[in-house]
Design goal:
2 helices; globular; 62 residues
Length: 62
């Protein structure tokens, strides 16, 4: 995996293009690890549940 490097621009209304995490969010969406919370939102300030973290880990291993 290493450092995230996304090729497509995924836009979420709550992820500013210049934010330090925008490229990582794009990479995670491109890689099928997450899809956001719906309604064109990612909710970067939300707390992840254990179930969400387990799902992220499982998807990242594929």
């Amino acid at each position: 995996m290493g450092q995230p490097s996304a090729t497509d621009k995924v836009s979420f209304a709550d992820v500013p293009a210049g934010s330090y995490y925008a490229q990582a969010v794009n990479w995670a969406v491109e890689s099928g690890i997450t899809q956001g919370v719906g309604g064109n939102r990612f909710d970067p300030n939300a707390t992840c549940t254990r179930a969400q973290i387990a799902a992220f880990l499982a998807r990242s291993m594929k």
